[in-house]
Design goal:
Layout (H helix, E strand, L loop, with lengths): L1 E7 L2 E6 L6 E6 L2 E17 L3 E18 L8 E2 L12 E3 L7 E4 L2 E4 L5 E3 L14 E5 L4 E11 L2 E11 L2 E4 H6 L33 E3 L2 E14 H4 L6 E15 L20 E2 L9 E9 L1
Length: about 300
């Protein structure tokens, strides 16, 4: 299915820059479009007297775009600062870009003193706000869901997977904990002092250095059960008993170095979407033992 939705008077959060006191407020401002394709395929892979396997694959390709803000094509809404003590913001909402667009410098390396160097985008021979640009986005291009139901004789197995691909995560946790200037006020990573050939990093700005691929595949759920039939039980008043063990949040495959790549579910506001700042933890793994008696 192809879908297209255009939202007017979108509810967005405008932030007041930190250098003038900082704060934020909600406004109805601008138009946002979402377009894409939803796909769903169900297959009965195997069906016989003993073994059945049904699999359903769902996928969504999404293109999000800010079509207009009230101030025109040069208007923008800056996001929140990604870490304590920082004035600059990591995300921006601007016409022509997606919600959750990262806005920062293009990192080119470290000098001998451990200071970052960046691309001089506007060519004025100095690094300033005019050198910031779009460096990535937090919204995934493609999301995936895969469900499987299997049964063999009296056994049954259900499994659920989900994934997201084509987006970035701003690892503000690593940024803060790698900055030697924060020590000893804040704890730092054990390897922070070994960066830059043992000289460490002493100043950090919002840049693509701290962006990481957010792609992941999550084994979300599995349930294994066994049904004791009436013939097996030989109890006239019980038709069957079903015993099952279920596990949630089994494992996640990802290249992201933070605690979890599934941070967008915890950062629902456009001003901090995709920013991992020391306050997002992995979902806990839970085990459930169930007993169902059918009379």
């Amino acid at each position: 299915d192809y879908f297209y939705k255009r939202t007017t008077d979108a509810l967005l959060k405008r932030s007041i820059p930190g250098y003038v006191g900082g704060n934020s407020f909600w406004v109805n401002d601008g138009e946002i479009s979402n377009r894409g394709i939803d796909l769903s395929v169900t297959a009965r892979i195997m069906q016989n007297d003993r073994f059945q396997w049904t699999s359903t694959l769902n996928g969504t390709y999404l293109k999000n775009r800010v079509e207009r803000l009230s101030g025109g094509e040069n208007d923008f809404i800056n996001g929140s600062s990604p870490a304590a003590g920082m004035v600059d913001y990591a995300t921006i909402i601007k016409p022509g870009e997606a919600i959750g667009t990262f806005w920062g410098y293009e990192w080119t390396g470290l000098d001998e003193n451990g200071h970052d160097t960046y691309t001089d985008v506007d060519g004025n021979q100095m690094i300033d706000g005019g050198d910031r640009k779009v460096i990535g986005k937090a919204n995934p291009d493609f999301t995936l869901g895969w469900n499987n139901s299997l049964s063999y004789k009296n056994w049954d197995l259900s499994m659920q997977f989900n994934g997201a691909f084509g987006h970035k995560i701003y690892n503000a946790t690593s940024m803060t904990l790698s900055n030697m200037s924060n020590f000893p006020t804040y704890n730092i990573l054990s390897g922070a002092q070994h960066l830059n050939n043992g000289k460490g990093i002493y100043d950090v700005q919002i840049s693509d250095y701290w962006l990481e691929k957010g792609d992941y595949m999550n084994f979300e759920y599995a349930s294994l059960g066994y049904t004791f039939t009436k013939d097996m039980l030989k109890w006239k008043f019980i038709n069957n008993i079903h015993l099952s063990l279920s596990v949630n949040n089994i494992c996640t495959l990802t290249g992201y170095k933070g605690l979890t790549p599934m941070i967008n579910s915890a950062t629902i506001s456009g001003d901090n979407l995709g920013v991992d700042d020391k306050n997002i933890y992995p979902l806990s793994r839970t085990y459930t033992l169930s007993l169902s008696v059918n009379f």
